[in-house]
Structure to design on (126 residues):
């Protein structure tokens, strides 16, 4: 996809957005996109969080459950634990912790570091 095509998808609200990490940064961002008229797919490794979001229940204090419920009901927001749906999106925002633990190991999941994990789930030209 070339920049002009992506720009057109964004301007017409037809761009499909992916948010990786549905915590205190990712979920509010996802809901802002939904409220603005975009379709959003969210990914998180926490199965309970994803299940709650699928039921329209927020897991973040700053995001009322009613906003999540409306986005789910309207079909604008879908949450997943697997990355199979990543290949259908036009833009990705990664919202995972970047801090290091005291023992200097990463707090974010290693799957984000592996090109082969991400490349099999993305489309050519995206």
């Amino acid at each position: 996809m070339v920049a002009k095509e992506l720009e057109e998808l964004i301007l017409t609200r037809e761009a499909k957005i992916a948010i990786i990490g549905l915590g205190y940064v990712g979920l509010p961002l996802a809901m802002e996109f939904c409220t603005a008229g975009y379709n959003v797919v969210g990914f998180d490794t926490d199965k309970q969080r994803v299940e709650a979001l699928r039921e329209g229940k927020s897991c973040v204090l700053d995001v009322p459950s009613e906003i999540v419920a409306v986005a789910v009901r309207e079909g604008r927001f879908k949450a997943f634990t697997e990355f199979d749906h990543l290949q259908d999106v036009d833009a990705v925002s990664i919202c995972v912790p970047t801090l290091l633990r005291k023992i200097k190991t990463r707090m974010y999941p290693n799957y984000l570091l592996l090109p082969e994990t991400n490349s099999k789930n993305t489309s050519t030209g995206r």
